[in-house]
Amino acid sequence: INQSYWSYFDYIDGVHFKGGNVELDSASSYVAKFTKEIIKYPKKNISKEFKYFSKEDYEIIVWMEKNRKKLNNIFGRKISTLIKNNLLGIIYLFRTLKKLYKFKSKKQVIHLDLHPHNIIMKDSKVNGVLDIDSCVTGNYMTSLSYSALKLCKQCVISMGNNSAGRISNRFLRNLERKFKLKKNDLSNFYIFAMSEVLRRLIYMFKISIKHKDYKWNRMIPVQINHINECAIFFKKPF
């Protein structure tokens, strides 16, 4: 419609995932079961796939480090200050994770945006998921780890910061049982979650710098906060 793409689906009754122990258990079990089913879908029917740790992405963050004075005009003073304070750390993570990321992992169909607003609850149980357009081909670990990050964060908002360790342990152990994760998969959650965080963050940098499209600038602080949250929820391998 008017050169815009729209998708229509059946209405799903319920509310967004808000957190809490009962919702946490239901969501972790559902994400595991949903992912197990969707990876069976023929990947030839899904054309979208994202690149991680590309040369272009690296050039963007290196350019930003060399041109710090220009960032205020692109991102505004408040967000550019946040970026500058974290830029060296972002470059370090990019270089480090590029060596650890599993490039040759099997590509399957995954939902890459199973965050709280895309998981609909009814009577504290999952009643359905939204945004099927976010299905891409990739590694199921990217889907599971990024979803765990977003859902665990929402639970911390609901239950308090002092419960972060218990929340992530409960979520991951339930996910491990329901999905039947492979040996050492849990130890790689940090790598995959952080890789997706960096991909999204650098994409936001890129479209602002190269295309003067600033619509995602407001989400940059969220993704930068995810850098610290990954270290809180998942075991850091380095």
How is this structure best summarized?
The chain contains eight helices and five strands. It is mostly helical and 238 residues long.
Main sheet summary? 3 strands, antiparallel
CA distance, first residue to last residue: 48 Å
Tally of DSSP helical segments: 8
Alpha-beta content class: mainly alpha
For the largest beta sheet, what order do the strands appear in spatially?
Answer: 1-3-4
Task: Tell me the strand percentage band.
Answer: 5-15%
Shape: globular
In total, the number of strands is 5
What does this structure look like?
- By secondary structure, the chain is mostly helical.
- The chain has helices at residues 21-38, 55-66, 71-75, 77-100, 140-159, 164-179, 189-211, 220-233; strands at 15-16, 108-111, 119-122, 125-129, 135-138.
- The strands form two sheets. A three-stranded antiparallel sheet has the order 1-3-4, with helices on one face.
- Helix 2 (55-66) crosses helix 4 (77-100).
- The radius of gyration is 18 Å and the shape is globular.
- The model has no long low-confidence stretch (mean pLDDT 94).
List the keywords.
mainly alpha; three-stranded antiparallel beta sheet; globular; 8 helices; two-stranded antiparallel ribbon
Topology:
Layout: E1 15-16, H1 21-38, H2 55-66, H3 71-75, H4 77-100, E2 108-111, E3 119-122, E4 125-129, E5 135-138, H5 140-159, H6 164-179, H7 189-211, H8 220-233
Antiparallel strand pairs: 1-3, 2-5, 3-4
